[in-house]
Fold this protein.
Amino acid sequence: MSTETSRIRVTDLSGVMRVEFVDKDILDEAAIRQISTELIKRAEAAASPRMVISFRGVEHLSSAALGTLITINSLTKKRGGQLRLSDIKPSIMEVFTITKLNKLFQIFETAEKALEGFGGK
């Protein structure tokens, strides 16, 4: 059995995790489970997780992926941290708006803008 390749790329920027997705389509249940596991491990490893998830390059997102984002958001808040989203294409942003998740998440136009408020810059 081969080891799974990570579905995310994480860069540590002065204590803030910048997360980007490897895949342009985040639809597959197994991939979403893997992404969820990786993000939860990273959030739990930090005392007060600060995370920016960039959707640059993401074309499609399933409702299961939205569920994962809600879970990660709850976990980071519970641990005294913060989750911010960025670079969301208009077609995906429409889903956030329809589901009112745009009210739950802090959403920024770019990852750079999302990182600014953390004080690491």
